[in-house]
Specification:
Low-confidence stretches of chain B: none
Mean pLDDT of chain A: 94
Strand content of chain B: 15-25%
Distance between the termini of chain A: 28 Å
Number of strands of chain B: 13
Shape of chain B: elongated
Order of helices and strands of chain A: EEEHEEHEHHHEHEHEE
Largest interface: A-B, 27 and 23 residues
Strand content of chain A: 25-35%
Structural class of chain A: alpha/beta
CATH class of chain A: Alpha Beta
Oligomer: heterodimer
Strand order of the largest sheet of chain B: 3-4-8-5-7-6
Shape of chain A: globular
Helix content of chain A: 25-40%
Structural class of chain B: alpha+beta
CATH architecture of chain A: 3-Layer(aba) Sandwich
Bound molecules: adenosine-5'-triphosphate, magnesium ion
Number of domains of chain B: 2
Chain lengths: 232, 384
């Protein structure tokens, strides 16, 4: 029996009105991801990578077509349902980290769990486990402004992973990191993917990232150009 | 709600300086509002008490031809005391001139029984004095006429037939009262003496009544209750209060503006943070609530900070009082040199509620905008 894909994008287009005309950022995208994949959308700047990730992440809605995530129709979700989907099942990692500046590392990672009303003990265990995955248990009480770029992105990974989500969407996670830190981060994510079976979907134009991906989806001008297994 | 409160505190304590400034500004207006109001209330109580004790008693029974506000009615505004005179202390007013240091000064001679106890005036001294014409005056007249205790001064008055007579008064006491009305231009003398001087035996311009007075319908006498007499005073104080509320309004407005401004700036500057909250699974409504609560928490913190320095300050003020500059004491209403603020529970509760509610409203108004933000743009940090 063939498994249902965890992400299923059918004929999705996204257009923005610009200067009175419709600008097509995504054009009839078809894409499926199975659980546990470690895949990346690769393409030049402006090709629509972030737009596609945002639709899959239920932060945005397609103009045309349907996107199903965990069998949920993104278009049909209410605000609250979308919030809940993100809270429980989707982890986000951003290019610029987006850590909450006034919170400590611990509190940043804890945030999603607070929304889930977990007990303080459960939260503490989960946060420390997640910080352990990224090797930052010693930095729990630091504020983000005291962290290096690599450390910040690792906090972001812990924050995305702490709730054990089904999917992690990482939008150019290495763009602001040096080569050494980029490799660190990628190794960490790859390891989590293998150990926990979490599905990862990247957007990138970084060669280093491509080296780690199992599957590369080439995007250009809002269209999928090529979708290939990556020979590692 | 609990979570938003927790997060609001986290955010506020996280951004220390901004929070501290807002809280200080708000707590300041808070303390000032309570203090100013308490001083007004203290003044009100003091002025009422003093006026009752020194001037009003339980009310005045006034001759129908006599208008205390019109000096021209003094001449004819008097009459024989009624038969039924339980609880009545007669006061007769007569116009006269005194000549301190060769100057002429118009005054009112006020005859009062030296045995009376209804008013705080030290009239006993009039009985004890060995002088021929002993009188007492207040500190204000003493100052304006440059008269001291023990001084003598020439007086000229007219008797009932209009004939001028003159004699020498001895100042046996200068009393200190907060009520200018019984002091400025008033000379108090034993009523028996005044009757003799003017041939107006058993006549009075008005009576101060005490609690034994039954208020019978008396022809040619009008009764003005204590309440009615106090009304002028209350009106005046309320007028002052209204004028003052503009000051509080302004103070509060400044504090609220600071919060409003912080909120608008926050929502503008914290776009990325808002986008992150939403990406992490917070609903927009909850983010609106979070920002609103952040604003009202300012007022709660301001309350706490305000009490930390406000309460000792209030206690200090209630012990030492609030000194009134001499210029203000000439205002013509009962105003002590020092006013002791009176802190009413109602006043404090009202102020607390007003501050918290208005802080919440000014926080909510800009926060509503969050519900309309596009999370994708917010995450990019695009100003929307
Ligand atoms: N809100 C918007 N309004 C108008 N145009 C938009 C909006 N968001 C994105 N676009 C346009 O859609 C296209 C795709 O944008 P997107 O951000 O998805 O590209 P990207 O592949 O992520 O690029 P980058 O590598 O630079 O991040 C771009 O041309 C962009 O200008
Ligand atoms: Mg992008």
């Amino acid at each position: 029996m063939k498994k249902e894909p965890i992400i299923h994008v059918k004929n999705v287009s996204k257009s923005y009105p610009i200067a009175g005309k419709e600008f097509m950022a995504l054009k009839q995208i078809d894409l499926s991801l199975n659980e546990g994949e470690f895949a990346g959308i690769v393409g030049p700047s402006g090709s629509g990578k972030t737009t596609l990730l945002n639709i899959i992440g239920s932060l945005d809605k397609p103009t045309q077509g349907d996107a199903f995530v965990l069998n949920k129709d993104i278009k049909a979700l209410s605000h609250n349902e979308a919030a809940s989907l993100r809270n429980y099942h989707i982890g986000f990692i951003f290019q610029v980290f987006n850590l909450l500046p006034v919170y400590t590392v611990f509190e940043n990672v804890e945030f999603a769990l607070l929304l889930q009303n977990n007990s303080a003990k459960e939260r503490r265990e989960a946060v420390m486990r997640a910080l352990n995955w990224v090797g930052l248990t010693d930095h729990a009480d630091k504020r983000p402004d005291k962290l290096s770029g690599g450390e910040s992105q690792r906090v972001a990974i812990a924050r995305a992973m702490v709730k054990a989500p089904k999917i992690v969407l990482a939008d150019e996670p290495t763009a602001n990191l040096d080569s050494e830190n980029a490799h660190e981060i990628l190794k960490t994510m790859k390891k989590l993917n293998q150990e926990l079976g979490t599905t990862f979907l990247f957007s990138t134009h970084d060669e280093k990232v491509m080296g780690y991906l199992d599957r590369i989806i080439h995007l250009r001008d809002g269209k999928i150009e090529k979708d290939e297994k990556n020979k590692l | 709600m609990k979570l938003e409160l927790k997060l609001a505190f986290r955010n506020l304590f996280g951004s220390r300086l901004r929070t501290l400034l807002n809280v200080l500004v708000l707590s300041f207006s808070f303390v000032i509002i309570i203090l100013l109001n308490s001083i007004m209330d203290g003044w009100n109580q003091q002025a009422q008490k003093d006026s009752i004790e020194w001037e009003f008693g339980n009310g005045h029974l006034i001759n129908e031809k006599f208008d205390p506000l019109d000096p021209y009615t003094i001449l004819d505004g008097h009459d024989k005391m009624p038969e039924e005179n339980i609880g009545l202390t007669p006061i007769l007013e007569r116009q006269a001139s005194i000549y301190p240091q060769g100057r002429m000064m118009s005054v009112v001679l006020k005859g009062i029984s030296s045995e009376q106890e209804i008013l705080k005036l030290p009239t006993k001294i009039l009985k004890e004095s060995k002088e021929e014409f002993p009188v007492i005056i207040g500190k204000r007249l003493a100052e304006s006429a440059k008269l001291n205790k023990g001084d003598r001064v020439q007086v000229r008055w007219r008797d009932s037939k209009g004939t001028y007579d003159a004699n020498t008064l001895s100042i046996t006491e200068v009393f200190d009262s907060n009520v200018p009305n019984i002091d400025n231009g008033k000379i108090w003398i034993d009523i028996n003496k005044l009757w003799g001087m003017t041939n107006l035996e058993n006549e009075a311009s008005y009576f101060v009544v005490d609690d034994k007075f039954k208020n019978p319908e008396l022809s040619s006498w009008n009764f003005k209750s204590q309440f009615a007499l106090l009304k002028n005073l209350k009106d005046l104080i309320n007028q002052k209060k209204t004028a003052q509320s503009i000051v509080y309004g302004l103070l509060l407005a400044i504090a609220l503006l600071a919060i409003f401004d912080t909120q608008i700036l926050s929502i503008f500057r914290r776009q990325k943070e808002i986008g992150t909250y939403i990406a992490l699974g917070m609903t927009r409504l909850r983010v609106v609530r979070l920002f609103t609560i952040e604003g009202s928490v300012y007022s709660v913190l301001a309350l706490i900070v305000g009490s930390i320095y406000g309460v000792p300050f209030f206690i200090y003020m209630s012990e030492t009082g609030f000194p009134i500059p001499p210029a203000d004491q000439k205002m013509g209403i009962a105003l002590a040199e020092v006013i002791y603020p009176v802190y009413g529970l109602k006043l404090i509760l009202m102020t607390v509620l007003t501050v918290i509610i208005s802080a919440t409203i000014v926080s909510y108004l800009p926060a509503r905008k969050i519900a309309k933000l596009n999370p994708v743009l917010a995450l990019k940090g695009k100003k929307q």
